[in-house]
Amino acid sequence: MEKLKTFCHRQFIIFGGFNFEEKVDYLKQLNKPQALAVKTVEGPVMIIAGAGSGKTRVLTYRIAYLIEHGVDPFNILALTFTNKAAKEMKERIAKVVGITEARNLYMGTFHSVFSKILRAESDKIGFPNNFTIYDSDDSKNLIKTIIIEMGLDDKHYKPNMVQNRISSSKNSLINAIAYKMNEEIQMDDLEARKPKLGAIYERYTMRCFKASAMDFDDLLLKTFELFQKYPDVLHKYQHRFKFVLVDEFQDTNFAQYSIIKQLSALYQNICVVGDDAQSIYAFRGADITNILNFEKDYSDLKTFKLEQNYRSTKNIVAAANSVIAKNKHQLDKSVWTDNTEGAKIQVIKASTDNEEGNFIAQSIFGYRMNHQLANRDFAILYRTNVQSRALEEALRRLNIPYRIYGGLSFYQRREIKDLLSYFRLCVNHNDEEALKRIINYPTRGIGKSTLDKIIIGAAENDMSVWQVLENIKKLDINLSPAVAKKVDEFRQMIIGFESIVQQKSAFDAASFIASSCGLLKDLYSDKTPEGVNRYENVQELLNGIKEFTENNKDHKEGNGLPRYMEDIALLTDADKDEDDDKDRVTLMTIHASKGLEFPYVFVVGLEENLFPSQLSINSREELEEERRLFYVAITRAMTQLTFSYAQTRFKYGNLIHSDPSRFLHEVDEAYLDFSQAGNQQRIFQGKRMEASGNNLNSYSIPAHSQLKKLSISGKSTSIKGDPVGSFQTGLEVIHTRFGKGKILSIDGNGDNKMATIKFEKDGEKKLLLKFAKLQVVKD
DNA sequence: CCAAAGATTGTCACA
DNA sequence: CAATCTTTGG
Q1: Which of A50, A127, A135, A266 could pair with A335 in a Cys bridge, judged by C-beta atoms 3.0 to 4.6 Å apart?
Q2: CA-to-C1' distance for A155 and C5, Å?
Q3: C-alpha–C-alpha distance, residues A738 and A147, integer Å
Q4: Interhelix angle A231-240/A254-264, nearest 10 degrees
Q5: pLDDT tens readout for residues A212-268
Q6: More confident position, A28 or A392
Q7: What span, in angstroms and rounded, lies between the C-alpha atoms of A583 and A44?
Q8: Is the pLDDT of residue A720 over 80?
Q9: Taken in order A214, A219, A224, A230, is the CA torsion positive or negative?
Q10: Residue A680 above 60 pLDDT?
């Protein structure tokens, strides 16, 4: 319980250190709106909580307040956005009301809470209680196989697109039947020349059912359907959860909102906490209008606004406000702070992504020295995960320890998924995706054509894939006896594993399976660095299982592998607690940083087409979401904020040029400090000229291959340097594309200086010296 | 059926 | 670039 997360460290010391005697005082620690929000416990309540306004504190104390006023923790449901948030809040509540009380709270993410309910009520919806939860890779694979099976072109029906379509339908509570019956949707699909989407959706649903599997979205959709179809079940949970609290309400989607409404319909003790300015998951179906609907759905709603920011300096708060003011769609609210003025936001300009990394690493090094800071005081936030690489290299060069959150999840790594697939298949034989993954890994002579035959056999006989294996001799699916024998051996191996799983602890079963299926040996024999790494990852997984086994020795539901699998299906690596006491710089995406705070924050890659993302600049809504994301990034910082951008950056192996992000211009200049930004001012001027009709777009050269070639040839100075002045008439030069040529004349000034060059091959060309990247021929 | 070489393609955030 | 899919020769 004492093991605290690095980021909440500070907050915890300030607000969390209550013991039992002190607990009476906690209300005095709250400001007026906070105290009201805590004490108004009956009826529907909405708390609009600005960034850093003590939202978690309010939620924590509200729950503590409920418990102290006689509410049984057993009757409280608190839904959070991440497992980690749930765990942390539980720890904080335990500090106030004691561990025994806190333990009975029902707290978790929507997905984890509803998966538990679905397992408990699985018979109602025709699923076994050991159903598998497909992650998005599993469902994408399945969708892809279905598209191919149906004889459709996967270039036209792109699996990713189909998956998104199905996912957003589910998030809007539209199941396959409703999808096919909805005329509007059918028209849309017809217009998009994708009339088979409904059929794919239907088949996908059927296949998941056959495999006893649910995807993430099913956990919501099926919970809703369960409650809708079985009023008695709903009634049970309504009585059970007399008080419902929802954190990060701005990020709930329609399905989640609908379930909350179902659950709280009887007592109406529903409290939602959120900030419309921090809604950053619309892409995943989150719907800001839930906040507006909430007012409509509950006429006696009481709304509280938390507007005092306790986290950041005046400068940071003001900068954030100046940015978010650009958004049209938002609730009326003004965040302010009593904190000190603080330093201005530093703006760093770098010529390349690598240089950006170096600047930031140096900057961290400098701050740390001058202000006696720890590594954990720093966070580097970026828009996309790929950006972490240059930063990592730079930090490593300066020996600054760091920790990356996100990226490829531990549980998504190939070797981990392989081993987990064995476990999954033991727990649920019908798990088609798990079976496909391991039936021939490690190789045992069951190739693609055999697998295809089995899958077709399953479809033709209306069976699960496993059932085909069970009846391999009876069914005539055209397998040679030798191959059929191999398949049967595989089946028997899994059955053998299953009996171990039933008898032994999770760790004993897991390590037995890992070694006897041949996976460990296969990885061990691979001595490449990646192979060694994979082996270590598997060991790490096994260590995790060992820990689980130890921790659950006395658990009433045992410490076997099936329970472990339920536990981890919905974990992300943000939930893995490891090395938290190590002092490291944090690297993460802005999305992952939501809810966290750091004294020193770097927001990097502030470039057009990166942040805001290229895919978001076409619609006002998407751009506003990007802006909210920027707002989230700014408001993570407590004392010092730094922005940075690079003029060139590698993307898919090509060097591309970038303009500074429009968001940089949206921050009121009064809060920015350009002294580190080189000729930043000139760039702003350039932008203005461009806007006023001068069409010479000097800051967006397309991704010329010349740039790349030149930088390889070692003349990187010419990218950021200023070679424009050194050319004169008569000089022999080499151009990377046009080859050798002679300068005939030069005209124009400064950045617009243009040379007329006669090339040996291509004749006369007029080139802007700034971009031509000419090399002088030396005799 | 398999491994290795070659071609293709994604192209943003996450439970 | 890197992950994934397809082709090819054994």
Answers
A1: A50
A2: 13
A3: 47
A4: 80
A5: 999 999 999 999 999 999 999 999 999 999 999 999 999 999 999 999 999 999 999
A6: A392
A7: 42
A8: no
A9: positive
A10: no
The predicted structure's pLDDT at residue A726:
61
How far, in Å, CA of A402 to CA of A397, rounded? Answer: 12
Catalytic member of A6, A55, A163, A431: A55
- Contact assessment for residue A203 and residue A150, using Cβ atoms and an 8 Å cutoff: yes
Rounded distance in angstroms from the CA atom of residue A558 to the C1' atom of nucleotide B11: 45
Nucleotides of C under 7 A from a protein CB: 1-2, 4-5
Q: What is the pLDDT of residues A352-370, one digit of tens each?
A: 999 999 999 999 999 999 9
More confident of the two residues A27 and A183: A183
CB A443 within 8 A of CB A418: no
In whole angstroms, what separates CA A19 from the centre of its chain?
36
pLDDT band for position A59 (cuts 50, 70, 90): very high
* Rounded-to-integer distance, Cα A507 and Cα A369, Å: 45
Contacts 24+ apart (CB under 8 A), A317-322: A317/A635, A318/A668, A318/A670, A318/A671, A319/A345, A319/A634, A319/A641, A319/A667, A319/A668, A319/A671, A319/A672, A320/A51, A320/A631, A320/A634, A320/A635, A322/A666, A322/A667, A322/A668, A322/A671
* Nearest residue: Cα versus C1' of C2: A652
- Of A292-296, A552-556, A736-740, highest mean pLDDT: A552-556
pLDDT, tens digit (0-9, with 9 covering 90-100), for A403-421 = 988 766 788 888 889 999 9
Q: With helix as H, strand as E and coil as C, how does A357-387 read?
A: HHHHHHHHHHHHHHHCCCHHHEEEEECCHHH
Q: What does the mean pLDDT of chain A come to?
A: 84
pLDDT at A589 exceeding the cut of 70: yes
| β-strands A106-109, A76-80 pairing | parallel
Q: Using a pLDDT cut of 90, give the percent of chain A over it.
A: 56
Across the range A34-56, mean pLDDT stands at 94
User: What is the pLDDT at residue A711?
Assistant: 29
Nucleic chain B contacts, protein chain A, residues 564-593, CB cut-off 7 A: 570, 572, 574, 589, 591-592
Between the alpha carbon of residue A381 and those of residues A24, A347, A637, the distances in Å are 39, 14, 11
Beta bridge partners of A245: A78, A271
Determine contact, residues A218/A131, Cβ cutoff 8 Å. Answer: no
A9 burial (CB, 10 Å; 0-12 / 13-18 / 19+) is middle
Our measurement of CA A485 to C1' B3, in angstroms, reads: 24
Q: A133-137, A557-561, A569-573 — which is least confidently predicted?
A: A569-573
Pairing of strands A336-337, A132-134: unpaired
Per-residue pLDDT tens for A610-634?
999 988 888 888 899 999 999 999 9
* Residue A779: C-alpha distances to residues A731, A741, A754, A756, A773 (Å): 11, 14, 24, 22, 19
Residues sharing a CB contact under 8 Å with residue A166, sequence separation 6 or more, in sequence order: A143, A200, A201, A204, A217
The reply to whether the CB atom of residue A248 sits less than 7 A from any atom in nucleic acid chain B is no
- A636 in catalytic set: yes
Count CA atoms within 13 Å of residue A60 on its CB side.
29
CA distances to A65, A468, A707, A731, A732 from A762, rounded to whole Å, are 81, 67, 20, 17, 15
- Give residue A200's Cα distance to chain centre: 27
Q: Which residue has the tokens 């010296």?
A: A769
pTM, entire model: 0.82
HSE toward the beta carbon, residue A412, CA cutoff 13 A:
12
Quick check: is A278 catalytic? Answer: yes
- Helix or strand (DSSP H, E) at A766: strand A763-768
DSSP characters over A412-470: GSHHHHHHHHHHHHHH-TT-HHHHHHHTTSS--S--HHHHHHHHHHHHHTT--HHHHHH
Euclidean distance between CA atoms A46 and A37, whole angstroms = 9
A4 pLDDT higher than 80: no
